[in-house]
């Protein structure tokens, strides 16, 4: 009943998206990576840009990391861009995308959800996707109170989704689940009175729509302060590529200093610029230091022409700070 009703709904209401008009695993994989933690409205522009610039996985593999990071700028979660590039090179070396869930799952940055999405849509593999939309639809319809972010919950929902998937129509079922959660069974204020699954929905019957799905308490969000110095010397400025093991690995930033190392003569541009990441809040102070003498740069920093700065991929926070910078 659930599966048939859902597929009938999808036939009438499914979204027409460019990556759904193909079975090319490269384009399906690319769309899935871009849409992790990203709304479709924002991700669409990036998807079209990537397939125009790099129409095949081999072409993407030939790009430099800096080119990929620059194209990704503004999407956040930059480890996705690094994994995207690494996976493109790995797939090219393999001669193409693996056609099994195990093979897809072994690729860098490809988890259970992405492997199931690529596998079902590109290769017709009977593997159910499970993401936030799927958790919500299943928890409400079947009245499941097991926390979705618990080990028990992840296993339960994965098995439930798999049991509902029709082996002859895995791509349609998975896309129907995604769309139903995104369009009908919304996180807040879902239109239950117009829902095609209303009659069999346990949450609607027991008035628990607002309390399902259940989620364990989130990790504590920590605050981190950053101080940046934009050096302006003879039309040049100093930047560095952020190292591994911290946020924004592989992206560029102006000089990052401790509070007691702000150069004499540096003028504040802005203070306490707030930027929110998944598990932390960043507060940034930004200074402009205009100097006629060449300063000594710490290890890792390089001089670049100010006019060339837009060729370097920077985190969104740095982009915001640079927009506040007075012109030289």
Question: Key terms for this structure?
Answer:
globular, 6 strands, 41% helix, 328 residues, single chain, alpha+beta
Question: What does this protein look like?
Answer:
- The protein has a 6-stranded mixed beta sheet with strand order 4-5-1-3-2-6, covered by helices on one side.
- It is built from 13 helices and 6 strands.
- The protein has helices spanning 2-13, 25-34, 40-53, 57-62, 65-72, 79-94, 101-105, 112-123, 132-142, 151-164, 170-183, 202-205, 316-323, and strands at 222-232, 236-241, 252-256, 267-276, 280-290, 301-305.
- α8 packs across α11.
- β4 (267-276) and β5 form a beta hairpin.
- The chain is α+β, with helices and mostly antiparallel strands and 328 residues long.
Q: What is the strand and helix layout of this fold?
A:
Layout: H1 2-13, H2 25-34, H3 40-53, H4 57-62, H5 65-72, H6 79-94, H7 101-105, H8 112-123, H9 132-142, H10 151-164, H11 170-183, H12 202-205, E1 222-232, E2 236-241, E3 252-256, E4 267-276, E5 280-290, E6 301-305, H13 316-323
Parallel strand pairs: 1-5
Antiparallel strand pairs: 1-3, 2-3, 2-6, 4-5
């Amino acid at each position: 009943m659930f599966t048939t009703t859902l597929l009938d709904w999808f036939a009438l209401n499914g979204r027409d998206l460019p990556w759904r008009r193909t079975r090319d695993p490269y384009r399906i994989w690319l769309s899935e990576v871009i849409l992790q933690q990203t709304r479709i409205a924002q991700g669409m522009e990036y998807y079209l840009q990537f397939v125009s610039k790099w129409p095949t996985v081999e072409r993407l593999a030939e790009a430099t990391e800096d080119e990929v990071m620059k194209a990704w700028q503004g999407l956040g979660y930059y480890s996705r861009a690094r994994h995207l590039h690494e996976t493109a090179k790995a797939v090219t070396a393999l001669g193409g995308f693996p056609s099994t869930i195990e093979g897809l799952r072994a690729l860098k940055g490809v988890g259970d959800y992405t492997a199931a999405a690529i596998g079902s849509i590109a290769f017709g593999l009977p593997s159910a996707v499970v993401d936030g939309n799927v958790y919500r639809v299943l928890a409400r319809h079947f009245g499941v109170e097991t926390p979705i972010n618990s080990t028990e919950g992840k296993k339960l929902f994965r098995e439930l989704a798999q049991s509902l998937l029709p082996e002859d129509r895995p791509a349609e079922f998975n896309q129907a689940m995604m769309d139903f959660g995104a369009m009908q069974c919304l996180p807040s204020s879902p239109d239950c009175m117009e829902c095609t699954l209303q009659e069999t929905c346990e949450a609607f019957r027991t008035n628990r729509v607002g309390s399902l799905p259940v989620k364990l308490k989130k990790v504590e969000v920590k605050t981190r302060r950053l101080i940046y110095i934009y050096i302006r010397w003879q039309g040049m400025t100093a930047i560095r590529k952020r190292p591994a093991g911290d946020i924004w690995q592989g992206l560029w930033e102006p000089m990052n200093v401790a509070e007691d190392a702000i150069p004499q003569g540096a003028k504040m541009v802005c203070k306490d610029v707030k930027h929110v990441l998944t598990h932390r809040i960043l507060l940034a102070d930004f200074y402009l230091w205009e100097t006629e003498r060449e300063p000594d740069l710490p290890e890792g920093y390089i001089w670049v022409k100010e006019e060339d700065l837009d060729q370097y991929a920077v985190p969104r926070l740095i982009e915001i700070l640079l927009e506040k910078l007075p012109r030289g």
